[in-house]
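[User]
Protein folding is very new to me. Any chance you could explain this protein sequence and its structure tokens? I have pasted everything here:
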Amino acid sequence: MENENWSCVRCGASNETWRHWCRSCPGTQDEARDQFRAQSNPTPPIAPPPGPRSGTRVNPGVIVAVLVAVAVVGAAVYFLVGRGSSTSAATTPSPQQQADSAILRLDDLPAGFATSSSSSSSNSDDSAKQSADKCFSETTGISDSDSDDAANKTADAKSKFESNSAGSVTVEAEVEFDRDPNPGSSALHVFTSPEVMACYQKLFEDSFAEKSVTLSDYQQVAVGLPAVGDERAGFEADFTVTGNTGRTARVGFVFAVVRKGDAFVTMAATGVNSDAAVGLVTDGLTTMVGRLS
């Protein structure tokens, strides 16, 4: 009706669609127009609701399946967020989980390395280690007791890799968490002092002597490390070894430690007739420390 004129039911006058009252009897206003529209558009009868048809009924099995699905989802949400909670609580990883996550991996190293299954220590090193421990404790006043170290350690992860692509390079890494980081921190403060450096040289000499190998041309310097973690120290040693057959080899050794909180990240690289690049150690330390939360 919006596009047609309407006629007043009182006087019969024809009026434009936009008018709200009859132009011949304006006192009627909307009343005359509404009565005209009511007569022109009678209300259609209300049809009764259709009866049930078997073809459109929902299978009871489907309803049960939906209810079960909703219940399962609701239970999952309940256990995820907890009673009365709207967000899930963050879980703090344990020290061992952090150590396992941070430890050096094969894909952290350049191409040519492979995982090594060989042991990093043997009983033949015991006397040399005891001698070195005595040197360290006498020089620094810091005891290096294995039993104290084991009691203080809360987590430990290690990895070892080897490369034979150019000479022979062995890489070893360790991430350790301590209950009390102060002993390790104190050791880092004197890690590269001249007195302690002499202990390292003695450790190398005694270790090779036990295997009938002579060490010569020993050189050792402190290594500059990237500013990662809270404390850090490292050194590089180069020397020549001569076996009982007269054959010789040049050995390069890089060792460094970084403390971050109560975690100590250690990495060592040994090269035989190959450069044990300092960059290999510094890059590995940076990667491992970066994974610690």
